[in-house]
Every structure is written in structure tokens, then in C-alpha cells.
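Appendix C reproduces, verbatim, an entry submitted by the partner laboratory led by Prof. M.T., so that reviewers can inspect both the input and the predicted structure.
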Amino acid sequence: MKTWVLLRGLMRESRHWGEFILKLQAQYPNDRIITIDWPGNGVLHQEKSLSHISEMVTHIRQTLAEQHINGPFYVLAISLGAMAAVAWANAFPNEIRACILINTSLRPINPFYHRLRLQSLPALIQLLFSDVAGKEKIILELTSTRQPQAALAQWIIFQKQFPISSHNILRQLAAAMRYRAQKPTVPLLLLSGAKDKLVSPACSQTLARQWQVPCWVHTQAGHDLPLDDSGWVLQKIEQYLSTLH
């Protein structure tokens, strides 16, 4: 039995994995799947967001310890969550069996104009001043090529139930922008969407070259790869895990 830890990105909570979690559980029915919300997001939306990735690692480990969940863990993480996964793997490599990182970007390997695509800046600024529905519509447009309206309706409900403050959004952005990464020693797989409007797909490809780890690119997907094509992500996870045994 494997224990999975799933980490979402900026402004997202565990429920934003959507049906992907059910599909992951169906693919690995004997495995345990743990999702963790960041302070400021989801059930922790009233807390102050962490402004350093190292603090997010502490939050992950404390959450798991409180639930008496032991590793080693298989970590599936997207964007900001993937930064935390890399920092966790660097600090505590014995706790992690493998990391699968989706559409991440890391300083100093990736330049700032790739880590946050400049054409997305106007939308991100607009997002800070939009109402709930407008905010979630902008996020969907930035992160998904499919843009399923059913997902948008759910996201609006999530945000109304557990709203995230603009101050916490900025704190999470600060954590992402200031983090400096080193290559972990644990097994790594990179997954990337070629049509990501938020983070340049060049980020994952550059990481793969410098760190000499596999990187698979979905030619039609955006930033939220599990939303755009969950089947492809699950296929690549299984293909990669088969190489670890």
C-alpha cells in the first residue's frame, strides 16, 4: 500500500482536485490518499497564509504527524504545491519515495518571465479586484484549456464557502517568487501542459534537462493538467511508477 500526499497550488484547496482524486483512488484502490490545504485556503481560509516555502513544508509534516500518518510518501503536487514538494524532498529525503510535479517553476533555474507569464499579469491584477464569480472565471481561463463550466460552478461555491483574501493571495505569491530550489535526491517526474497560460512549459523542460529527470508534455493541456486530462495524468503516473520497482 502506498500513501499519497496531494498538494495544490496558489489560491487552490483540496476540493479543486475534483474527480481526479476518485480516479486516482480507483486506479490504486489499496492506497491511501491524503490532501492538505494551505493556511489561507479551504478549511484553513481564516488563517494567515505562509510566506515562505519552508513554512509550508513544516505545515505538511505537522499535518501528517497530527493524523499519525507515516511515510515514505508518494507526492503529487501542482505549481506552488510542487515547490513545497521539492523543498520537502530536499530537507527530508527519507520521507519521500517519489515526487510527481505538475507545471511547476523554480528559481534560479527558470527566469521570472517564464515562472509567471507576462501576458497573464493583467488578468492576475484584475483578479484581485473581482467578485467571486469574476475571480473564479479568470482563474479557469488562465489554468484550463477545456474550461468546463461545471468546474466553474463548483469553484464559485468553494470560494463563497471558504473565501481567500487578497492579502493571503499576495503572501502565497511572495512565497513562490522568493523560493530558491536545489535538486532533490528522490525520484522525480515532471508533467507539463504545453498550453499553460500561467507558467511557461519551458520551465519544466529546463528543469528536466538540468536535473536529468523525465518530463512528459501534454500538447493540448493547460496549467491545471488534472482538470484538462485526468486520464493522461493517471497514465503517466502508472508508467512512471512501473520504472521504480
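The chain has one domain: 3-241. Additional entries are available on request from the coordinating office.
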